[in-house]
UniProtKB/TrEMBL annotation:
Keywords: Lyase, Transferase. Its EC number is 4.3.2.7. SUPFAM superfamilies: Gamma-glutamyl cyclotransferase-like (SSF110857). Transmembrane segments: none annotated. GO terms for biological process: glutathione catabolic process. It comes from the Bacteria. One of its GO terms (molecular function) is glutathione specific gamma-glutamylcyclotransferase activity. It comes from Marinobacter fuscus. This is glutathione-specific gamma-glutamylcyclotransferase. Gene3D superfamilies: Gamma-glutamyl cyclotransferase-like (3.10.490.10). InterPro entries: ChaC (IPR006840), GGCT-like (IPR013024), GGCT-like_sf (IPR036568).
């Protein structure tokens, strides 16, 4: 699948008659909220784990030197904590452009912190997209992040802001925190 997913996403869902829909964010959508929303609540989705396995050629890297950003991989028993936003469907006209480098919208059930549930959408970059980089040792991921920068800023800022946001949400994400430790260690040595 081509890395530019705008047209794929526009064909995926018919929002006719829908006033508002929940969007689950687990990466930059937690802390970079440059879109209007009606309501926001901490939430989690089950069976998915956050991984810095997606390449960023347009935000935190360049086509020649991609950065690394998060996607979700299926992992039975895993719980991914993030932030859910109730948005008007027209917000996806903007978000599909922002998330165009490999992310497709999927339906997902989500659980709010008070135990209630809702159905909504989540952007996931699957392994068959051209920008996918895949698994690598966490120190190597940290080194790539330390060296990368793109139109949205340094890749390290993406990682550090995400790690801070996850701490605020009291989310356990050993993968993100391990990469953060490597990155901070390499910066101070
Ligand atoms: C998300 O935040 O939910 C998707 C990945 C990203 O934009 O960082």
């Amino acid at each position: 699948m081509s890395a530019n997913t705008i047209e794929h996403n526009r064909r995926r869902f018919d929002f006719d008659g829908v006033d508002a829909i929940w969007l689950f964010g687990y990466g930059s959508l937690i802390y970079k909220v440059d879109f209007p929303f009606l309501e926001r609540r901490p939430a989690s989705i089950q069976g998915w784990a956050r991984r810095f396995w997606q390449g960023s050629h347009d935000h935190r890297g360049t086509p020649e030197a991609p950065g690394r950003v998060v996607t979700l991989i299926e992992q039975p028993g895993a719980l991914c904590k993030g932030m859910a936003y109730r948005v008007s469907p027209n917000v996806f006209e903007y978000l599909d452009v922002r998330e165009k480098n490999g992310y497709l919208r999927f339906r997902t059930p989500m659980t709010f912190d008070n135990g209630s549930h809702a159905e909504g959408l989540v952007y996931i970059a699957t392994a068959d997209n051209e920008a996918y980089l895949g698994e690598a040792p966490e120190p190597a991921i940290a080194a790539q992040i330390a060296a990368s920068s793109g139109p949205s800023g340094p890749n390290s800022e993406y990682l550090l802001r995400l790690a801070d946001s996850l701490r605020q949400l009291e989310a356990d994400c050993p993968h993100t925190f391990a990469i953060e430790v490597c990155l901070r260690g390499s910066a101070s040595s």
